[in-house]
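FORM 7B: Structural annotation worksheet

SECTION A. Query
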Amino acid sequence: MSSVAVIDLGSNSMKVLVAERSVDGQLTARKTRTIDARISAGISQARPHLSEEGMARGIDAVKALLNDAAVFAPQSIAMVATSAVRDAVNGPDFQQRVAAATGHSIRILSGEEEANLVGRGLTCDPALSGLRDFYVFDLGGGSLECLTFHNRRIQQAVSLPLGCVRLTEKFVPNPSQPFTEESRAAITAHIRAALPAGDFKFSLPKNSIAVGTGGTLTTARAILGAQKGLNLEKTDALITLDQLRQLLGWIGALPLSGRQPIAGLPAPRADIFPAALATFIAVAESGGFEAYRNSFYNLRWGLAAELLDANH
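SECTION B. Predicted structure
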């Protein structure tokens, strides 16, 4: 069967997915990989600007991910960029540099495109096939995608500038020190103000199911699993609000040097992880739900489905 490859140039990390359709029509992954490149440093500024170092890290990561994909000889390759490149004043320059270095062009997604592709990816998750009405929250380094599904159709799809790199830069004065109550309160207030301002409404009944995607909940799940000696794949996909609060209380009290060795927490994410946890907690408190169902299906899966349909 033919496969396709998607490379996602995210604000905090860059990822590849090589996928194909099985005989029953399900999308299956042949290869996944994540590289923490953090091209988005400075994203909270009024005029975000990608640094030379960040762009160099990004280009190196793209080359490595293209090499990973090449092994599978995909029928087509899509390379997309999200908030960091979309918002940067020199995003077009980075786009040109990647094309010159790799021969592949970058599609810069609008916030609406990003949110809708996240939603399409979620519908590929067989574990969610029984859900009809639910929320989806996908947290990245630069933005938070918020969706509402009704009868498995997208009713709302909003992209908000609430990514964990952006909020860390804005509200955490020194990420190497313990996460303060002042930072948590500022992030919570900012999110509660931003959600209605972004035209996202919590329109489903209270205690509706919320699906969470992105590195933060996957990391939280990995940490919780490591405490029980479980690999990520064997862990419970349901992560409660109480578990997130307990994680933030423990990890947030540690300096960066104390967070980095924690099993399940990638060291390059340790500086932004407290703000990311605080974000998911604030969203849950605003929406009145007590847990997230974590899914590994997201933007890349939506793009893979789009490519495979186009090639069919």
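SECTION C. Observations
The longest strand covers residues 27-35. The radius of gyration is 18 Å.

SECTION D. Sign-off
Analyst initials: ____
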